[in-house]
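Dear colleagues,

For the upcoming journal club I promised to circulate an example of a predicted protein-ligand complex. I picked one with adenosine-5'-triphosphate because it came up in last month's discussion. The inputs are reproduced below in full, followed by the predicted structure.
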Amino acid sequence: MTALLEIADYRLAFDTFDGTAQVLDGIDLTLEAGGTLGIVGETGCGKSVLARSLMALNPMPPARVVSGQIRFRGSDILGMSDREMRRLRGRAISMVFQDPASYLNPLLAIGTQMEDAIRGQDAAVGERQRPRAAARARAAELLAAVGLPEPARLLDSHPHQLSGGMRQRVLIAMALAGDPVLLVADEPTTALDVTVQAQVLALIARLVAERGLALMLITHDLGVVAAACARVAVMYAGTVVEEAATADLLSRPLHPYARGLIAAVPDLDHPERRPQGIAGSIPSLITPPRGCRFHPRCPVATERCRSEKPLRREILPGRSIACHHATP
Ligand SMILES: Nc1ncnc2c1ncn2[C@@H]1O[C@H](COP(=O)(O)OP(=O)(O)OP(=O)(O)O)[C@@H](O)[C@H]1O
């Protein structure tokens, strides 16, 4: 059976004034229909660039595909024309971003923006644009689906009249407009208050379960992954270093970087145990370390790690690690 999404040996570089940054360095990931995958890692490790790759949203140039494929239902999206990509966006793959305010026009009522988006999608897939009234009815239905009360009144409101959490719900509603099969959420709760974060995350988890959506959730927060994703991929400096069932990774991380990430999370049950950070910082992607990109920070690095890049291999069923020293 073909996976919904297959990313194979995907390398992406950014040509900058300072040199070429090798931002994604051979990503391999698979997501089945209805599967939920969290992507975690420190800031700058390439999570957002990877998410944006799924919708051709990285500016090219400066970005440049060096190698690999991103197959969605078997077709490589990297070779798609703008027209094909527009068809895919919204109808098959939809995205929710970190900062809801910047994706809504402050001057237009929510209803107008949702109608425009819904009718724009009709046009993108080559269908006759539905009348405004029909688009408005659809918008109200979507607002109700994301738990927003009084949709009719909300449609007449402007973005500044809504709280941050409500704005993010509006954007999630818009992301659902074309009945996508894959939702890509890039730090969807990071800009929100803590209490609202949990509500929005619960909403995403509910929608994913009810609609059988596949989810790729980008976050730096392992708690967010635990709440919404069955599987998790840990990224470091443009590579996936470990991929596993979320519960397995959280209870027993095997890659030294994954161990460090988890050790850095405060343990609320044992406040006396001080969280251990990972010494050092992420490397330059213009002159990345040879061999394993994590070796300068790794407590178990050896000579081999300095010269030979570890390939990710399955060391337990459903669990793969890119480390020369990993043992099950
Ligand atoms: N338009 C661009 N031009 C040049 N470099 C870029 C561009 N966009 C991203 N990068 C580089 O790609 C790398 C990865 O960035 P990315 O935003 O994917 O990281 P991230 O893991 O999502 O971090 P964060 O959690 O802070 O969003 C960074 O080194 C960044 O500087």
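Two points we might discuss: The chain has two domains: 1-34+46-89+233-328, 93-179. Residues 194-211 form the longest helix (18 residues).

See you all on Thursday,
B. R.
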